[in-house]
Predict the structure.
Amino acid sequence: MTIRITIRSFAMIREVIGDRRVELELTGSTVGEALDILVDRYPDLKTHLQSSEGWSNHFIYILNEEKLDRGAMTGIGISDGDEITILPPAGGGLKN
């Protein structure tokens, strides 16, 4: 069964994709599979999102407003209409 999901992106990920949102149609059923398809479509994302240990811990991954454990993303199911958000690391703070 084919499902349609939305990927929301910010900062450098948005720059690579060229838009804040991209829709994917896929037969995959997990967050990890959806991100694999995203990286296949936009190969320049690989250097940002993947590391030798799997999905980069430099980003926050959110499924329908719920923060995900990057190590468990391969087992987290997705459904038609879901939204995955990729947030860059927060930076800044006060300088004395």
Notes: The longest strand covers residues 3-9.
